[in-house]
């Protein structure tokens, strides 16, 4: 059982610090994943809060059939789909508007690194939602194809095909901008 599951079970047994640990450990990654679905960072933050609110209030049981992270991300994905249905209008404001590019240490090096991230995020924003999701889950969150399949409600074969096509599409977009990402 992973640490998230242990923390959540502690919360279910009355230890409020357990939920705090879950939020601390998974909050940022969950928000970035949801941003990949919605294309709106503010909405992604709101949906992440809604997900943790559901854990706090409804206290769904974690069965252990998958990893805790996979289970949590599935809840968040469902919340995102429900939230998008309610809103039906998503802002076009890119996530890049929220990055603070100034830094006191090595401004030039950090600026170049941030520019690469921005290029990658911009290229990913142009991909369709399934491509963004599968790339985010497998590359940025380090999930296996099976875990991504569980979250996205697709078969492992569909995820393999989707990941292959997503990498080709992203590589093509990045090459057009003169940028090569070493992990693709």
Q: What is the compact description of this entry?
A:
Helices cover 71% and strands 0% of the residues. With 184 residues, the chain is mostly helical.
Explain the overall architecture.
The structure is a single chain. This protein is an all-alpha fold and 184 residues long. The protein has two domains: 3-87, RNA polymerase sigma factor, region 2, helix turn helix motif (Rna Polymerase Sigma Factor, Chain: A, Orthogonal Bundle); 101-176, Orthogonal Bundle (Arc Repressor Mutant, subunit A), CATH 1.10.10.10. Helix content is 71%, strand content 0%. The protein has eight helices and no strands. The mean pLDDT is 82.
Helices and strands in order, then pairings?
Elements: H1 3-12, H2 16-38, H3 41-57, H4 68-87, H5 107-125, H6 129-140, H7 145-152, H8 156-176
In the CATH hierarchy, the architecture of the largest domain is Orthogonal Bundle
Label the overall shape: globular
The share of residues in extended strands comes to: under 5%
Q: Write down the secondary-structure element order.
A: HHHHHHHH
Number of DSSP strand runs? 0
CATH topology of the largest domain: Rna Polymerase Sigma Factor, Chain: A
Catalogue the unreliable spans. none
Q: Provide the domain count.
A: 2
Q: Which keywords apply here?
A:
8 helices, Rna Polymerase Sigma Factor, Chain: A, 2 domains, mainly alpha, 184 residues, Arc Repressor Mutant, subunit A
């Amino acid at each position: 059982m992973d640490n998230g599951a242990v923390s959540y079970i502690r919360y279910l047994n009355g230890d409020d610090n357990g939920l705090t640990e879950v939020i601390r450990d998974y909050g940022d990654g969950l928000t970035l994943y949801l941003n990949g679905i919605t294309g709106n960072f503010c909405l992604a933050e709101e949906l992440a809060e809604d997900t943790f609110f559901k854990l706090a209030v409804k206290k769904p049981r974690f069965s252990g059939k998958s990893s805790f992270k996979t289970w949590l991300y599935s809840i968040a994905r469902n919340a995102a789909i429900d939230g998008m249905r309610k809103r039906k209008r998503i802002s076009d404001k890119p996530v890049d508007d929220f990055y603070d590019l100034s830094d006191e240490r090595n401004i030039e090096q950090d600026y170049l690194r941030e520019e690469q991230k921005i290029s990658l995020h911009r290229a990913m924003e142009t991909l369709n939602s399934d491509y963004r999701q599968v790339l985010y889950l497998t590359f940025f969150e380090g999930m296996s194809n099976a875990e991504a399949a569980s979250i996205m409600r697709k078969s492992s074969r569909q995820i393999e095909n989707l990941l292959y096509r997503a990498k080709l599409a992203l590589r093509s977009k990045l090459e057009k901008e003169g940028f090569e990402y070493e992990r693709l």
